[in-house]
Amino acid sequence: MEHFTIATVAEQSSDFRRVLWTGEHTQLVIMTIPPGGEIGEEVHEDIDQILTFVSGTADAIVDGEKRSVAQGDLVVVPAGRKHNFVNTGPNPLVLYTVYGPPEHADQAVHRTKEEADAAEESGQDEPPTS
Predict the structure, then answer these.
(1) pLDDT digit string (tens) for 49-99?
(2) pTM to 2 decimals?
(3) Where is the Cupin type-2 domain (predicted)?
């Protein structure tokens, strides 16, 4: 059994992205987006994503529809939908997300968005194949 006090774990991480757990069908990731930062516009063709916001405020943009989100909100992004989350507040935006199937390399830690983007572009951030 894996057990996390997820809001506490997420709040204690200053990393842009940290993979906490990877299973065969899903993956749990925590993220911290600095003030003025964003996840970055993206599409996961074959991956559903569920994001739960622990602290901070953001604009959630999914397929061109924009909504404000804050602590306690949850956003579902079905596979194939263009999306981005932009921190609109003065404090870090902290969230956890579940991907199904996994999207990132098991145990991956990316301290900044730039580091995360570089790992993806170089092929170092590929999900497990089995």
Answers:
(1) 999 999 999 999 999 999 999 999 999 999 999 999 999 999 999 999 999
(2) 0.95
(3) 30-99
**What 3-state DSSP class applies to 110?**
strand
Instruction: Classify strands 74-77 and 48-55 as parallel, antiparallel or unpaired.
Output: antiparallel
Question: Does the residue 57 lie in any domain?
Answer: yes
Q: In total, how many domains does the chain have?
A: 1
What's the gap between Cα 39 and its chain centre? 7
In a domain, 1, yes or no: no
DSSP for 62-96, written as a single string: ETTEEEEEETT-EEEE-TT--EEEEE-SSS-EEEE
Is the residue at 80 inside a domain?
yes
